[in-house]
Amino acid sequence: MNIAGGATLVGSNRNADWTITGSNSGSIGGYPNGFTFNNIENLRGGTLDDNFVFNDGANWQGTIDGNRGTDTLNYSNFTSNLTVDLAALGATGIETVIGTTNATSTLIGSNTNNTWNLTGTNSGTVNNTLSFRNFQNLVGGTLDDNFVFNDGVNWGGTIAGNTGTDTLDYSAFTTALTVDISALGATGIELVIGTTNATSTLIGGNTNNTWNLAITNGVTLNNTLNFIQFQNLIGKLLDDNFICRNPMNWSGLIDGNIGNDTLDYSAFTIPVTIDLSTLNAVIIETIVGTNNATITLIAPDFNNT
User: Fold this and answer.
1) What pLDDT is attached to residue 3?
2) Cis peptide bond N-terminal to 247, omega within 30
């Protein structure tokens, strides 16, 4: 059977595999004599599960409505780079989107506030309604995007927050967490949340860094990226300036690493005592006190010059 032309093609009320072969053409499996269609503007699934499978490079020009059941858009046949933009997709009633492992797959969020739950490498859900897998790269929409990592998940590609106030949230981790800014593969992010369930370590980027430490285990890096719930801070290859502000009481380690690194208390307006034997800071070349209050420096318990 062949259907040539029409506004909308509605599937039968059974599980169906739709093969999308071109911009407005394809076939439906399960018919003994075959069932093909062309010049169709819109597709609508039946009341059970519909699987819309795209041939390599096929770009459907109309709308796809999964209707009821558990319905899927499947791009796993693609061998060329794939971008699925949820804001422009023209698909409704879809529960799962499958990218490709044969090329780079990018998923762009809709222009709403989005919560992305990252459940595994290149897989997760959006807003608890749409599941996705085989997407290496994620791009947020134009509003706020919150990327929430399940315990232990190591995302295998890139994450771009796009516009809005966007967050990477590792608070579900129960194992030790290290976030290395230079290797993170994330851009357009305004806030990174560590975990209080295990040790969280933050490593700076390969630039001169200014760390503003305003609260316990909270920091702003280079006035652009905010962090909370990180116990340990490690500088990188160049100079790191750790600016301490009262009433800050940092509970973890500060490691300057390579470069000329500084602990700067000049913003303090209350008395402060710095005991070098208990400071829990290493590889620091300079400590700057304050002119705004009394500051006391206690030397470590060995011969000092």
Assistant:
1) 54
2) yes
CB 257 within 8 A of CB 239: no
Predicted confidence at residue 163, as pLDDT, reads 94
Query: Which pLDDT value is given to residue 52?
Result: 98
pLDDT of residue 216: 78
> Exposure string (b/e) for 51-87, b if CB count within 10 Å is 16 or more?
bbbbeeebebeeebbbbebebbbbbbbbeeebebebe
Residue numbers in the chain where pLDDT is lower than 50? 1-2, 5
Give the pLDDT confidence score for residue 6 in this predicted structure.
60
Q: What is the SS3 assignment for the chain?
A: CEEEEEEEEECCCCCEEEEECCCCCEEECCCCCCCEEEEEEEEECCCCCEEEEECCCCCCCCEEECCCCCCEEECCCCCCCEEEECCCCCEECCCEEECCCCCCEEEECCCCCEEEEEEECCEEEECCCEEEECCCEEECCCCCEEEEECCCCCCCCCEECCCCCCEEECCCCCCCEEEEHHHCCEECCCEEECCCCCCEEEECCCCCEEEEEEECCEEEECCCEEEECCCEEECCCCCEEEEECCCCCCCCCEECCCCCCEEECCCCCCCEEEECCCCCEECCCEEECCCCCCEEEECCCCCCC
